[in-house]
Every structure is written in C-alpha cells, then in structure tokens.
Design a protein that fits this description.
Helices cover 0% and strands 47% of the residues.
Amino acid sequence: MIDGVWVVPLEVHSDDRGYLIEIARRADDPEGHGIVQRFGQVYLVGNFARGVIRAFHKHEKTWDWFTISHGSAKVVMIDERENSTSRGERMMLVIGERRPVLVAVPPGVYHGWMSLKDDTQLIGIASQTYNRQDPDEVRVPPDYFGDVWTIRGR
C-alpha cells in the first residue's frame, strides 16, 4: 500500500428500478466513507476504446478522488515523495462497474489508468479547480516507470 492512498468500497443500493451508488462524502461527515477534505471540481473522462492509457501525472497540492462508473480500468500509482514511508512503492488495482470503489490519491503520488473495456468512464473529483495557465501537475510518459500496463495471467 502507498501511504495516504485510500481504496474505499462503494455500496450499491438497488431495487426493481435500478441502482444508486454514493461516490464521495466530505471528510467531516460522521457516516459512510467521508474522505473528501476539500472540493474543487468534478469531471468525467471517457476512453473510447480498451487499451487507451492516461498516465502519468502527480500534483503538488491537489488531491484526486475517482471511480470508474462505466467499464473497467487498471489503475497504477507510484509513490516518489521524498519523505514518504512508502517511497518507491507501486500500487495496481483493477476497478470498474463490477468492483465500485473510490480511490483517493494524495499530492505527490504519480497515478494513471488504462481502460480495459471499450467506452470506459472515470468520474473524478479534484480538491482544487484546474488552472490551465498554471496547472498543478507534473507529467511523465506512460512508460516512464517501465512496463506497468501489460495484463499478465496468473
């Protein structure tokens, strides 16, 4: 595990009409999975085809919280924070509509994802509004940490 990263199972409430999944609650909410400390914006990212990679980036100040609402994805996180107890650790998850979780990524942790199905959609929450003129992000290529995207049989 990477220090500061949370993977919170999301509860599906379903009946004969369909389903509802609560994605996030604010940190001071005494019930449920309250881990969102600050709210900046909500966004939806879609990949048209399986195998599309959106990686890697980290933030200096911004927290990211996200879930896959449609399809499935492989999520990779790598801790390169100077003073972290989990520096050098890698964390890989497969998440999606069949395994609904909220992933919380603290500032300083590189993260990215690859769609495992066509038309995969990610819903993200950022602690700060994205500033196009001065973005709080550091980007590196998808292969910067080696081959982390290949799916291997067990």
